[in-house]
C-alpha cells in the first residue's frame, strides 16, 4: 500500500471554512493534555479561527491530499522586529494524521520561501504541545511567555527561534 500524496499550496480565502474546522478539531484534541480546561475554554475559541489577513498574505500554506482535504497548514509573516526576521504562524496538522510528515512538509515550504524572501531568522510562539516538533525542526527554546489574546484572556506559550 502506498502513502497518499500530500501537496502544498498557498492558502486562499476560499479555505477559511476548512481551516476553521481543522484548527478547531485539532487544537481541541491536541492541546487537551497540555493546558487546563480553564485555558482551553477561554483560548480555543480565539485561536481556532483562520485569520483572513494571514490567508491572503501569500505566505500561508495548506497541505492537502489527492481529494483536496486539508490535512495541515502553516505559514510565516515578516516580523516587526526587523526585515530579515519572520514569525511562524498558525501551524496545525489534523489530529488523525499526525506523524506522517505533514507539518514537516509545511515547515520545509516555509523555510524555503522565507529564505528566498531574505529571511534569516524565524521566531515562533509555540504551544506546549508543539515544542518537541519545533525542536526537531531546528528551533531553540528562548522563554516561556504569556500571550494576551484579549483583555483578561491569556495563553501560555513558548517563544522559540531558528536561524535559517
- Please tally the β strands and state the result: 7
Largest sheet: 7 strands, mixed
Count helical runs.
Answer: 5
Shape category = globular
Your description of this structure?
The protein is of the alpha+beta class. 31% of the residues lie in helices and 34% in strands. The protein is built from five helices and seven strands. It has a seven-stranded mixed beta sheet. A hairpin with a 2-residue loop joins strand 6 and strand 7 (153-163). The longest helix is centred in the N-terminal third of the chain and has 15 residues, at 16-30.
What would you say about this model in short?
With 164 residues, the chain is α+β, with helices and mostly antiparallel strands.
List keywords for this structure.
alpha+beta, 7-stranded mixed β-sheet, 5 helices, 7 strands, 31% helix
Write the layout of secondary structure elements.
Elements: E1 7-10, H1 16-30, H2 37-47, H3 52-55, E2 60-64, E3 70-78, E4 85-93, H4 102-116, E5 121-126, H5 131-136, E6 140-150, E7 153-163
Parallel strand pairs: 4-5
Antiparallel strand pairs: 1-2, 2-3, 3-4, 5-7, 6-7
Helix pairs in contact: 1-2
Amino acid at each position: 500500500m502506498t502513502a497518499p500524496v500530500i501537496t502544498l499550496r498557498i492558502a486562499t480565502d476560499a479555505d477559511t471554512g476548512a481551516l476553521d474546522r481543522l484548527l478547531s478539531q485539532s487544537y481541541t484534541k491536541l492541546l487537551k493534555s497540555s493546558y487546563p480546561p480553564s485555558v482551553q475554554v477561554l483560548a480555543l475559541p480565539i485561536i481556532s479561527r483562520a485569520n483572513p489577513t494571514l490567508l491572503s498574505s501569500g505566505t500561508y500554506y495548506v497541505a492537502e491530499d489527492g481529494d483536496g482535504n486539508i490535512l495541515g497548514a502553516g505559514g510565516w509573516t515578516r516580523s516587526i522586529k526587523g526585515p530579515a526576521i519572520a514569525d511562524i504562524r498558525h501551524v496545525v496538522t489534523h489530529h488523525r494524521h499526525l506523524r506522517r510528515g505533514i507539518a514537516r512538509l509545511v515547515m520545509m515550504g516555509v523555510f524555503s520561501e522565507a529564505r528566498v524572501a531574505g529571511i534569516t531568522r524565524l521566531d515562533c510562539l509555540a504551544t506546549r504541545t508543539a515544542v518537541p516538533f519545533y525542536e526537531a525542526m531546528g528551533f531553540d527554546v528562548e522563554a516561556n511567555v504569556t500571550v494576551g489574546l484579549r483583555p483578561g484572556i491569556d495563553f501560555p506559550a513558548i517563544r522559540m527561534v531558528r536561524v535559517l
